[in-house]
C-alpha cells in the first residue's frame, strides 16, 4: 500500500522517500614493497600512489657510500632509512596501502613491524645485482607470506631471462616472476595485482 503524503506544520505535504543506500568504503589492504638497495621501491610507490607519498629519504653520506654499492646507481643521492608509504584505490571495493621497506641490511630490524598485517609482498629485483634481493626473498619465504618477484627494467631492459632469474633466486614455480617498470603507473599496478592474486589463491587453497 502506498504511503499517503504526510502533512507538515506549514500545511504542505511531503511524500516519504526510501533511504539512500549506504555506500561502503573500500576494503583496506596492506601490501609491502621490498627489495635491495636502489632497486626502485621508492620510485614504484611514488609512481602509483594517489596521495603524495610519505618517504623517509636521507642524503647518502660518504660513510654510507662506502657501505652501499652505488656502482649501478651513480646518480642516487638519497636512500630510504625507515619506509615509504602510499595508497591506491584499485576499485570501489578495494584500496591498497603500500609500505616500502628500506633496502639495506642494517635496517632489517624494522621489517617485522612494517610487514605485520600485510597480505603479501612485491620483491623488486635489479638483475644486475641479484645478490641484493636474496634477503627479501628469504624473508617472505620464511614468514610464508605470499609474494611475487618483479624484475625492474632499468633502461627498458633486463640483463637475464626470467627463467634464469627464477633459477638464481631458487623460488618455486608457484611464485610469479614478472618484468615491470617502476616508473610506469600501469606497470606497477599490474605487478601489485599479481601479488593480490597470489594472496587470494593462498586463502582459497
From TrEMBL:
<dbReference type="InterPro" id="IPR052705">
    <property type="entry name" value="Gliding_Motility_GTPase"/>
</dbReference>
<dbReference type="Pfam" id="PF03029">
    <property type="entry name" value="ATP_bind_1"/>
</dbReference>
<protein>
    <submittedName>
        <fullName>ATP/GTP-binding protein</fullName>
    </submittedName>
</protein>
<keyword id="KW-0547">Nucleotide-binding</keyword>
<dbReference type="InterPro" id="IPR027417">
    <property type="entry name" value="P-loop_NTPase"/>
</dbReference>
<comment type="similarity">
    <text>Belongs to the GPN-loop GTPase family.</text>
</comment>
<keyword id="KW-0378">Hydrolase</keyword>
<keyword id="KW-0342">GTP-binding</keyword>
<dbReference type="InterPro" id="IPR004130">
    <property type="entry name" value="Gpn"/>
</dbReference>
